[in-house]
Design goal:
The chain is an all-alpha fold and about 425 residues long. The chain has 18 helices and no strands.
C-alpha cells in the first residue's frame, strides 16, 4: 500500500518496547498496523489473513503485531471498526443537509471522493464488511453491534418530513440497497479515470433519487419462472450441494464454509461430499457458475417477452429477487470473491462483469425505446446488479415474508428512493 514503507521505520519490534511508551505513539503504531492489515483482510478474507503477512508489509516480526493485537480476531475487529469510523465521519457531515435528497447525494459524493483518495494513495481502503460473517463469538457480536449502529444512522437519513409515510421496512430496504451500491462502486469505479469520479457520483445520485424507469412500475407485471431452470429428479444431487454450499458461503465466507459444515447441513458424511465433489474449491467455483447461469437465464427469458425494454428489465429484476428469497435461492454473494482461490478469481470476475454489462445493455435499450430514463447505462447496470445481490439479506433480516417484499426491493431501483 502506498506510504506504508515510509512508516516502517517508526515501528519497533516488541523487544524494544517499554511500558513507558506514550499513548499517542502507541495509537499511531496501532493505526499503521490496521492500515497494513486492511488490504490483506480484503484480499484473503479473515480465515486467510495471517499476522506474519501483515508484519512483513511494515517491516516487523510477527511478534511486533501481536504486541498490539494478541489475536488476529482483534486485528480484524479493529479493521472493521476503522471503516465504521469513516462512515460516522461521513454522517456527521451528511446529517447537516436539509432533506433526504441532499443527504443521500452528499453521502454518495463523499464516499466516491474518498475512494478517489484511496486510489491516489492518500487514504486507507475500507475493510470489506463481508468479513463480519467469518468472525465468531464475542468478536462477531461486537462488530455486528457496530455495523447495526452505523446502519441505523444511514437509515435515519431517510427520516425526513417528505418521507413520513415511508415505513421502517421500506427505509431498511433502501438502506440495504444504498450501502451495497456504495460498496459495489469501489469495484467498478476502477474502470474510470479518477478525474471522472465527481461526474460518476452525480450519475449515481441521479439513479438513486430518480430511478431507472419509473413509468414501468405502474404497468402490469410480467413474470418469469426460473424454477424450471433448476434440475430435479436424478440430476438434483449436485444441485443440493450447490444450494447448501451457497447458503453457507454467504453466511460464513469462503473459508468459513468448511467441508464439514456443508456436509452436516445435508446430513451427509465428509466421504459423501468427496463422492460428489473432487474438491471444495471446485464446488465454490461451481456455485458461482450456477448463480451466473441463473442470472443469464433470467436475462435470456426477459428478452423473449413481447413488452417494452423497461418492462423486460423489471421482469428480470423481480424474477431474480424472487429467486433470491425462494426455496431454490439464494444466489452466491459477490462479496465472497476476495477470499476465493486466485485460480478461480479471473473467471468469476469476468463472469460478474459480463452480467453487469448485460444489465447495462438492457438499460440502454430501455432508454432507446422511451421506457427508461436517460441515465448512464454502465453505472445503472452495476447498480442493478448490486441491488439484486443484496436482496438476499432479506432472509437474514427475516423480512422474506413481508407483504410485497419483491416489489419493495424493485420499487426504489426503478422509481427512486423518494417514491413509495
Amino acid at each position: 500500500m502506498p506510504g506504508q514503507k515510509s512508516r516502517a521505520g517508526m515501528l519497533d519490534t516488541p523487544d524494544r518496547e517499554t511500558p513507558a511508551v506514550s499513548p499517542d505513539r502507541f495509537e499511531r503504531r496501532r493505526a499503521d498496523i490496521i492500515a497494513a492489515a486492511i488490504p490483506v483482510l480484503n484480499e484473503q478474507g479473515f480465515k486467510g489473513m495471517r499476522l506474519t503477512d501483515v508484519a512483513e508489509l511494515i517491516g516487523l516480526r510477527a511478534t511486533g503485531v501481536t504486541y498490539y493485537f494478541p489475536r488476529k480476531e482483534e486485528l480484524a475487529v479493529a479493521c472493521l471498526e476503522s471503516g465504521y469510523a469513516v462512515f460516522h465521519d461521513f454522517l456527521a457531515v451528511v446529517e447537516k443537509e436539509a432533506d433526504a435528497r441532499s443527504r443521500i447525494g452528499k453521502l454518495i459524493s463523499m464516499f466516491v471522493e474518498r475512494d478517489a483518495a484511496v486510489r491516489r494513495g492518500e487514504a486507507t481502503p475500507l475493510a470489506a464488511f463481508s468479513s463480519i460473517r467469518a468472525l465468531e463469538g464475542e468478536h462477531r457480536t461486537r462488530v455486528m453491534d457496530g455495523y447495526k449502529a452505523m446502519f441505523r444512522r444511514v437509515r435515519n437519513l431517510l427520516d425526513s418530513p417528505e418521507l413520513e409515510g415511508m415505513d421502517k421496512a421500506d427505509r431498511t430496504i433502501r438502506t440495504l440497497i444504498l450501502m451495497e451500491q456504495l460498496f459495489w462502486a469501489s469495484s467498478w469505479l476502477g474502470d474510470f479515470e479518477i478525474d471522472e469520479f465527481p461526474r460518476l457520483a452525480q450519475r449515481m445520485t441521479d439513479i438513486v433519487i430518480n430511478g431507472i424507469a419509473p413509468q414501468v412500475m405502474g404497468e402490469a407485471a410480467d413474470s418469469l419462472d426460473l424454477g424450471s431452470f433448476i434440475p430435479t429428479g436424478p440430476d438434483s444431487s449436485k444441485e443440493n450441494f450447490l444450494k447448501a454450499a451457497t447458503l453457507l458461503i454467504n453466511e460464513y465466507g469462503y473459508r468459513g464454509a468448511s467441508v464439514d459444515r456443508i456436509s452436516a447441513s445435508l446430513n451427509l458424511t465428509k466421504g459423501a461430499f468427496y463422492h460428489h465433489n473432487e474438491a471444495k474449491d471446485d464446488l465454490v467455483a461451481a456455485c458461482f457458475r450456477r448463480s451466473f447461469g441463473i442470472m443469464r437465464e433470467a436475462q435470456r427469458r426477459a428478452r423473449q417477452l413481447n413488452v417494452s425494454e423497461g418492462r423486460r428489465l423489471l421482469a428480470e429484476v423481480t424474477a431474480l429477487i424472487n429467486f433470491q428469497l425462494g426455496k431454490e435461492g439464494p444466489l452466491l454473494r459477490t462479496s465472497v470473491l476476495s477470499s476465493v482461490p486466485p485460480e478461480h478469481q479471473t473467471e468469476i470476475v469476468n463472469q460478474s462483469h459480463r452480467i453487469s454489462r448485460q444489465f447495462a445493455s438492457m438499460v440502454a435499450d430501455a432508454i432507446a425505446d422511451g421506457s427508461g430514463r436517460a441515465v448512464d447505462p454502465t453505472v445503472a447496470g452495476a447498480m442493478v446488479h448490486a441491488a439484486i445481490n443484496i436482496s438476499s439479506d432479506a432472509r437474514i433480516l427475516e423480512m422474506s415474508n413481508e407483504p410485497d417484499i419483491v416489489q419493495r426491493f424493485a420499487r426504489p431501483l426503478f422509481m427512486g428512493f423518494l417514491e413509495f
